[in-house]
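Troubleshooting log. The previous structure file for this entry was overwritten by mistake, so regenerating from the original sequence record. Sequence copied from the archived sheet and checked twice against the printout by T.R.
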Amino acid sequence: KDPPGEMRLGEHPDVEYRWAAIRGDREYRITGRRGDEAYLSFTAHAGVRGSGFQQRFDGHLNHHDIPTDDHGRFEIHVSARPPGDATTAWLRISPDVNEIYARAYYVDRANDHHATYEIRALDEHPTSRPGGEEVAERLRQMAMAVRDVTAAMPQPLTDANTMGEVWTLDAQSPSRMWTAIDNVYARGVFRIEDQQALILEGT
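Regenerated output below.
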């Protein structure tokens, strides 16, 4: 989640984003409770950690795939192998998975009841102090994330006040800056002068 007042990766006021780093050789459980959100999803990304262009879609679930009880509570098993209970929602992950993004879209974010959720590892994993090579690799990943984000945004003002074509994704395409596979996207930049207003029209 971006800090208040800082908007990166396309964040907008009607959406809450959450992120978690994960590993493909471990198992996790996401537990939560639905709110008034119009859309809720969990998308796993695999490939080169830190890269906005060298990752692919892994597992993905949205609110249509997640059963809830009478109180809106849900549970998702995150693992390479399916859970023993066939009624539990399963978010499949690959060996090179590295992160999960959660998205909740609201019609009236200020007044809607918000969804809540958390992720926990199910298996024991000893903690250890990272060595020099691991620290160096994390710094390389951080540098890659900064490079890719600043290459994609902000867009140049060469075609201001024009909205791009709507584009969709498929399971075989790169995940392109940590997108969600069931979303559609369009973006553009604007330039307005003092006393001008920006009007968006669509069908």
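The helical segments are 132-152. Archived copy saved in two places this time.
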